[in-house]
Fold each of these.
Amino acid sequence: MHAMQYRITLPADYDMGVIRHRVATRGHLLDDFPGLGLKAYLMRVRGGDSPVNQYAPFYLWTRPEGMNAFLWGSGFQGVVQDFGRPAVRHWAGLSYEEGPASSALARSATLHRSPVPASASPADAVEAAVEESRRLAKSPGAVASASAADPHHWELLHFTLWDHDAPAAPGERFQVLHLSHPEQDRIRRGRQW
């Protein structure tokens, strides 16, 4: 499993209805994309707990060929044409768990990134991240939870989908506009090694 995200931060007065319309008219195009476990079309609106207007899709890929086909094929080119070329972050998958609301519609998501302290054992930090992902997946209203790591920057990531408004928790909260999940059943459950 590979996790991937790019973020498009938009002006404070940007009409976020444009993003809603984009997802409503184009989101279905990845509903059967080979190699895609899931894509959560995420958005947050300036005000409340968000300092910015942002479109920030998040992906879990079942195999690298799918990710590569999206990035180097026509999928990502629409983003580049409309918004410019954003930096694409990616992480090695650590774990994936489905929650008690796995059959429900995902309405929101939380994403929390944290550094692995230089003094910490990478193996211990990863085990703690996997355990945190398991804990989050058991929460009421959790649809699914994943953890991942970036060993270049030594960063851990927790991503959880919810069937209700995301709970107040560390990290960022997003609205889910659409969820494409053509190969979600192929994302291996539990630890990814």
Amino acid sequence: MKKIAMIPARYAATRFPAKLMQQLGTKTVIAHTYHATVRTGLFDEVVVVTDSDIIREEIEREGGRVIMSKGEHESGTDRIAEAAAGLDVDVIVNVQGDTPFVAREPLEKLLQQFEEPSVQVASLMQVLQDEASIADPNFVKVCVDKAWNSLFFSRSVIPYPRNKEAAITYYEHIGVYAFRKSALMDFTAWPMSPLEAAEKIECLRYLENGITLRMVLTDYMGVEIDTPEDLEKAAKLL
């Protein structure tokens, strides 16, 4: 399989504008993410996809390849689908630009899922343990079946613990995806689905079109930079 990592990098983030260009140690957040992805050694190529000349110039200074995209995409997946349309590739891994601590092992596990022909899309999750995070709508939860295929994603608490004595494991969806190219092209051809529009969770578009995601359990992946407080956490972790 020819494998490419694509990093969607939007400059004007809603919750934390210009977060990818924030300084984290000696490099910007997006530069950390780019170099961490390259260091995994898993990919034939690593590409940053952005609508921003500022981010383009930053990655080119770091020696990376950039593909410019339109600015009006609804999601990172739509952004990389536009860039991937003309590429000769079998599997594309979408590494979020705000994940500067991405590591080899979880991405390797993602790629291994495509040894099974039926898998069209795969993504990562981790166990959520503290009650505040489980209740926090900024943490997207996922429920899976016995084969680790996704059943539903939500910002609400799922499953809801009506039986207080039942043992429940809560999983947080980590926004790192892998796609067969055909599945990625299908995604961008479909209109935004009702559940996706309600929850603002892009992978619900797949579920509403009958495609489950193969979920891969991983250990804690560091910090996603969604807020200034996350940047402070990341600096401590670094």
